Amino acid sequence: MSKVFLTGASGFIAKHILRELIEKGYSVRASVRSDQRKQELQGLFPTATIEFSMLDLNKDDGWHEALQGCDVLIHTASPFPLSEPKDPEELIRPAVDGTLRALRAAQAAGIKRVILTSSCAAIYKQADKPKMQPSTEANWTTPTDPSVGAYEASKTLAEKAAWDFVAQHPDMALTTINPGAVFGPPMDARYGSSLELVEQLMSGKIPMAPPMDMVAVDVRDVARMHVEAIELEATKGERFAASSGAYRIFELGSMLKNWDATLKTPSREAPSWLLKIIGLVSKDVKMVADNIGRTLAVSGDKAEKTFGFKFIPVKDALIASAEAVKSAK
């Protein structure tokens, strides 16, 4: 059985990938940023034999040594904030440089198989595509478009850098998995940005829902795709949207409200004119306003056909997230 190197192993998605790898019998070497994160994973998987490497996306130290002896690279590590940074390069440089750092180390170690966690954010904002036309894996976000935020640009540029790299090293086979907003059950109390949105919808921190849709998926499906892609020949050289469907944010709040009527979910959508005015002084609100009149929908049909499964319904993923958020209080 192959030995898999998993970067960013303490992340929300990566923990589920780690569990899938262990259950399927793979040997795993996992990168983390601190001894605390290592201890968290050892607590989650007390009977598993996991090798650990302490690595930093922004530093070369240790990368080449860490990947020696591995057969597969699964690169999940990338920054994911809830708000726009003052300088987009704060996200773009670690995402792009970190991806290339991992790929160079993999190539030097003789690794031929690479699975990269990208995002639907690298797909759904192609500037020359009709704004209300759903996207597919054939589409690419235009990083220089004014509506594209730093995170969206970072994921697009990092994925493009990966495809450019393997084009120069054709002995390497790349697959990218492009999730939408990732919901579902976290494996511990540290669940990151995706579930923070659920907490905000539940608690009244979003009094009026932004008038936009978002593509969503269950973390268990995302993890499954990463691991099954290792051996699935049809996935080589392909990108796959991990998408169970696109829903208005207000609809997501309504799903939660139907599950628990006591939640303080948004009672209506914010008017477009109000967001445009607030967007003049708030970078975060401006990013929302720039999405008005655009669908972020991305089809998950290619993934379902190639992997041979049906995505978990968004409602089930959302409620699994909500149960975790509620129990953590």
From TrEMBL:
Residues of the NAD-dependent epimerase/dehydratase domain: 4-237
Keywords: Oxidoreductase
Pfam families: Epimerase
Gene3D superfamilies: NAD(P)-binding Rossmann-like Domain
Keyword Oxidoreductase: yes
Family that this chain belongs to: Belongs to the NAD(P)-dependent epimerase/dehydratase family. Dihydroflavonol-4-reductase subfamily.
PANTHER family: NAD DEPENDENT EPIMERASE/DEHYDRATASE, STEROL-4-ALPHA-CARBOXYLATE 3-DEHYDROGENASE, DECARBOXYLATING
Protein name: NAD-dependent epimerase/dehydratase family protein
